[in-house]
Amino acid sequence: MDEDTGLKTINLEEVRLKKNKFLKKSTKLKEPLVILSIVIILILISTYYVYSYPSSLVILDVNTSITLKVNKWNRVIDVSSISTEGNNILNNEYIKNKNINDTLITILNKAEASNYINPLDKDNLKHKVTVYISGDTIDITRFTNEIKSKKLNLLVNENGTEKFNNNSFN
Q1: Shortest CA distance to 151 belongs to which of 116, 115, 126, 114?
Q2: Residues contacting 107, CB < 8 A, separation 6+
Q3: What is the mean pLDDT of residues 11-32?
Q4: In 3D, which of 125, 156, 152, 122 has the Cα closest to residue 141?
Q5: Residue 132 and residue 65: Cα distance in Å, rounded?
Q6: Is residue 134 over pLDDT 50?
Q7: What residues does 62 pair with on adjacent strands?
Q8: Which residues, 6+ apart, have CB-to-CB distance to 117 below 8 Å?
């Protein structure tokens, strides 16, 4: 403290030493945080890639074709149709990231509501549902049971082999 003015004097050398000490500590702390951030980002990117990688392709034919890409956890990661009828069925339906059985049942109900399939119709084509599966095996037992309860004909072809054929309701 300056005796004449009563002001406190600051030793610039002390300030520099404190600043350098703080910078060294913060630099030591920054390096692990940066590494941790990079590791977390890489884990998130790889998890997203693994989740969004299709392991199976499912084509559902209900007088219009709808294509579903399914990951290895049986979750639908992409859905599309090249026809306007298929797009009408998919319109306003949030089916991505749902279980494949839930998605197939939702599409089936929407197709039935839109009269693309109808077990009571005279046209035999409206009685038939065909599922083509390419890639990993998928368990669609709940969907199969739903088809049976609606008394529709079902053909399931998995990797070129007829897995299920139910034409007993004609």
Answers
A1: 126
A2: 60, 62, 66, 89, 90, 93, 95
A3: 66
A4: 156
A5: 10
A6: yes
A7: none
A8: 62, 63, 108, 111, 126, 127, 128, 129, 152
- Tell me: the pLDDT tens digits for 61-86? 988 899 999 999 999 999 999 888 88
Q: Pull the structure tokens for residue 45.
A: 């990117």
Bridge partners, residue 65, by sequence: 61
Identify the CA nearest to 60 among candidates 3, 167, 140, 124.
140
| Sheet containing 153-158: order of strands | 76-80, 65-70, 56-61, 128-135, 153-158, 161-166
Q: What is the pTM of this model?
A: 0.73
**Phi, psi values for residue 76, rounded to 5°:** -75, 125
Check residues 84 and 25 and name the one with the higher pLDDT.
84
Residue indicated by tokens 């998605």? 103
